[in-house]
Amino acid sequence: MAVYLQCVAKRMRGGYKHEHIHILWWVQVVDGKPTNETGFSTQEQLIDFVESSGPQALWCPAAKPGQPGAWVGVQTLGRKKYLQAYRDGRPTEDLLGLPDR
Helices in the chain by DSSP H: which ranges? Predict the structure, then answer.
């Protein structure tokens, strides 16, 4: 059974880059189907979740129509960790393309 969280919206704080994502809203997906389980988590909570659950725990739809979504990993800027979506091993802007809440 494949279970992961799909990002659906974001809230930024203090800037506009990936390290400024403050909260992400999500829906749980089981075997490719969204469930009724939804919620929101801070970037720090989701960093812990991704680090403990693995590279296919958090997914983000594509910011540009027609492209596939991307798995979200943890990146480091100095001592600060932040979330970054990756498609084919390359960073994407998909998280920043999520609707604001």
Answer: 43-53
